[in-house]
């Protein structure tokens, strides 16, 4: 009996031991599986973290790109001209086709109050030695709003004078060519380098003031004391004498714009030693009035130049004016007439005055695309007539 109990106990112990061993092996295997799963999970967590970081980085890049695209703007304008003008004094014809201007604008907003603007122009299609064209930087300035009333800018910018000097895209004015008074007397397009301040004193009333580089007129030759030829275009410009400009503009009445500009430069020759100091004052005023589809523009400009040499040449006073009524029948079609008188020629007699009349049409294929045609008659010191055709765009 005792032997049986011993045998049974031994058998039971063996079975229990084998089950315990089996259970231990099973637990170890389970632990290994759990550890492996934990490693897999940790690896997945690392991969998910890396993926989230890449997604966040991509989102940041996309957002930055979107902001950059919205902050930086590109634009421009251009105009192609055909001129067919006969010089009645010589009988010679001017028949030319010219892509007069190709301009690109690039602007960027650094913030709501600080921005950059630039304008790069190619004139007459091609430039270089012996070529008729030029590449010109007409604007490149930083502008900053100090508050709602006060805005300043520094760099290279268009002068606050006249009607077309600051706004001269081909869709914004009548006629193929820009008017000769603002071209020769003001002289548009005219830019300088320096600093400017704009003050919005009241709704519709603004003041501008600038301190900039100035003109440098020749003192000898056919272009002596010629204002347009005195533009230095901020190309290593002689800055011995700066220019000071002030403008007041009133636009409080709907359809009406009144503006007047004065500029003073102590020496228009920039210190040429062989002549009298030629201080110069520019005065100009204009009015634009629109009622329904009818618009009339009028401008007067005058230079007063001191110095014996300028007086002897008859260029101590250079002035001009024009009036331009226009009627726009609809969004596509408009007609105009413009009469100009100006005198910037050398000589002290009355025959230096030039008159010019233009009559023509504008056809806007789109608000930013225009076709133009006008008849031109020049009299006085010059005698010519003919017609001009043009196409212009802006974007």
Automatic annotation (TrEMBL):
It comes from the Bacteria. Residues 27-61 form a coiled coil. The keyword Ribosomal protein does not apply. InterPro entries: Porin_dom_sf, Porin_O/P. It holds the Pfam family Porin_O_P. Residues 1-23 form the signal peptide. Keywords: Coiled coil, Signal. This is Porin. It comes from Shewanella violacea (strain JCM 10179 / CIP 106290 / LMG 19151 / DSS12).
């Amino acid at each position: 009996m005792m032997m049986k109990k011993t045998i049974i106990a031994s058998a039971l112990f063996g079975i229990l031991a084998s089950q315990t061993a089996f259970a231990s092996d099973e637990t170890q295997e389970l632990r290994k599986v759990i550890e492996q799963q934990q490693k897999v999970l940790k690896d997945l967590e690392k991969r998910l973290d890396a993926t989230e970081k890449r997604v966040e980085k991509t989102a940041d890049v996309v957002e930055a790109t979107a902001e950059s695209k919205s902050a930086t703007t590109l634009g421009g304008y251009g105009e192609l001209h055909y001129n067919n003008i006969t010089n009645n004094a010589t009988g010679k014809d001017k028949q030319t086709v010219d892509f007069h201007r190709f301009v690109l604008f690039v602007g960027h907003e650094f913030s709501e109050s600080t921005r950059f603007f630039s304008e790069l122009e190619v004139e007459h299609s091609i430039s270089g030695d012996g070529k008729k064209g030029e590449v010109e930087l007409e604007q490149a300035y930083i502008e900053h709003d100090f508050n709602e009333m006060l805005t300043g800018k520094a760099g290279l910018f268009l002068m606050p004078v006249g009607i077309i000097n600051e706004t001269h895209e081909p869709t914004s004015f009548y006629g193929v060519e820009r008017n000769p008074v603002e071209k020769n007397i003001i002289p548009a397009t005219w830019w300088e380098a320096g600093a400017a301040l704009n003050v919005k004193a009241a709704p519709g009333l603004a003041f501008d003031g600038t301190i900039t580089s100035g003109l440098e007129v020749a003192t000898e030759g056919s272009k002596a004391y010629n204002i347009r030829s005195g533009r230095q275009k901020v190309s290593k410009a002689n800055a011995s004498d700066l220019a000071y400009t002030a403008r007041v503009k009133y636009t409080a009445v709907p359809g009406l714009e009144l503006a007047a500009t004065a500029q003073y430069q102590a020496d228009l020759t920039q210190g040429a030693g062989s002549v009298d100091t030629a201080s110069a004052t520019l005065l100009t005023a204009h009015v634009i009035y629109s009622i329904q589809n009818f618009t009339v523009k009028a401008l007067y400009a005058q230079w007063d130049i001191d110095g014996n040499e300028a007086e002897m040449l008859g260029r101590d006073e250079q002035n001009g004016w024009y009036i331009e009524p226009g009627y726009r029948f609809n969004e596509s079609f408009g007609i105009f007439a413009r009469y100009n008188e100006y005198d910037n020629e050398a000589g002290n007699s009355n025959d230096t005055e030039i008159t010019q009349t233009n009559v023509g049409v504008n056809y806007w294929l789109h608000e930013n695309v225009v076709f133009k045609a006008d008849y031109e008659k020049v009299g006085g010191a010059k005698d010519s007539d003919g017609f001009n055709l043009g196409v212009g765009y802006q974007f």
